[in-house]
Amino acid sequence: LFDVISEAGDNGPSRGASTITQQAAKNVFLFPSHSYVRKAYELYFALLMEAMWSKERILEVYLNVVEFGPGIYGAEAAAQNYFGVSAKQLSKWQAARLAVVLPNPYRIKVYPQSDYTARRTRWAMNQMSNLGSVQL
Question: Among the CATH numbers 1.10.3810.10, 3.40.640.10, 3.40.50.300, 1.10.3720.10, which is that of 2-131?
């Protein structure tokens, strides 16, 4: 899962309004709200993170705090909850399935599978193939 997301890069969002760094800053340091004040703090903390941490460390923190569903925080908890395995034991398909819910785990669900999640999982698998060998 780490490699799938890291290969996608952090050049800004293709959808939404936050980079992975901004999302990690929001999830680690801030309160849940949708205000300009919170967004300003998010930017401040994101800049600090970029200055102090490597991209790999930022992604590691993000994957440990991101919500994959109601009360399911972090890739390890998601792997165990949805697939009954450690995050290190995820198959490429399972990692792709978890990755596709990250834009909005309350709207896009791992299970039950919808046409959308099936299409996005296939797309993620194709991206992994295009990128070459992805280590999970």
Answer: 1.10.3810.10
